[in-house]
Design goal:
Layout lengths: L1 H34 L18 E7 L5 E15 L3 E6 L6 E6 L2 E6 L19 E6 L6 E13 L5 E17 L2 E17 L2 E8 L3 E3 L11 E6 L5 E15 L1
Parallel strand pairs: 2-5, 2-6, 2-7, 7-8, 8-9, 9-13, 10-13, 11-13
Antiparallel strand pairs: 1-3, 3-6, 4-5, 10-12
């Protein structure tokens, strides 16, 4: 009986220690993604200002209705503006080519792979940034296959589809919009003031911070399946290998 009591006490201590570690670890992950709120102010970072010397700069007379990106290394910003256009800083991480025809803006990176990207590198002078300006972003459909770096959207768009983000994703919009993302390897900070959507995340291997209650589990991977208001939009994410914050 004494041995059984000792074993039970040992198991209880292990559980308490595990839960304590989990809570502390979760808080660290939560804080790490909240710190990435800097993504929403990415244009203010050095190298993203309109006063920067851009290697490529072009205005389009026609509206950008569709944005297609096969691969892009560096930072990407989609921004509402009084004109339609693109700006690309003169970075050291490869060469971006693009074409615009019949409302479709196609961007591809012909440079080398960037396997060792750190968040700090995203804001160095020599790290290339690509800014897409749209007069009517709420009508813009963006489809991205592979983004190695960071992406920031500071406005409402019509639809966002991403295969893979290796780095950080920051969204700060007035309204929710349709999103379908296969995988995020890094961190995501999603803020939409008027959330009206079904949110489904199949697998989260990291910290989670949300403005709503959901059936939270202490076991990994975690999952979210939540309807906010009328579920006007669908936000679906396959896998998050890192931390995610969802706010309004």
């Amino acid at each position: 009986r004494f041995i059984i009591i000792v074993l039970l006490l040992g198991i209880s201590a292990s559980i308490i220690a595990g839960v304590s570690f989990f809570i502390n670890d979760r808080d660290k992950l939560k804080n790490s993604v909240i710190d990435l709120s800097i993504m929403k102010d990415i244009e203010e970072q050095k190298g993203f200002s309109d006063t920067e010397n851009f290697a490529k700069e072009e205005n389009f007379d026609a509206e950008i209705k569709e944005l297609y990106i096969e691969k892009l290394n560096g930072g990407l910003l989609i921004k509402q503006s009084n004109y339609n256009g693109i700006k690309i800083t003169d970075g050291e991480k490869g060469n971006v080519v693009y074409s615009f025809e019949n409302g479709k803006l196609i961007i591809d990176d012909k440079g080398g792979e960037t396997d060792n990207i750190s968040i700090k590198d995203l804001f160095k002078n020599n790290y290339r940034r690509t800014i897409v300006y749209s007069k009517n972003p709420e009508e813009l459909i963006a489809k991205i296959t592979n983004l190695n770096g960071a992406m920031s959207i500071d406005t409402n768009i019509k639809e966002l589809t991403i295969e893979t983000v290796n780095g950080a994703l920051g969204i700060d919009s007035k309204e929710s919009f349709n999103m379908n993302i296969n995988s995020i390897n890094g961190a995501a900070n999603i803020k939409m003031e008027n959330f009206d959507a079904n949110i489904k995340i199949n697998s989260i291997n990291g910290g989670v911070s949300t403005f709503f209650e959901y059936e939270e589990s202490n076991l990994f991977p975690r999952r979210i399946d939540k309807k906010i208001k009328n579920g006007r939009n669908v936000i679906e994410i396959g896998t998050v290998n890192g931390a995610i914050s969802i706010d309004n």
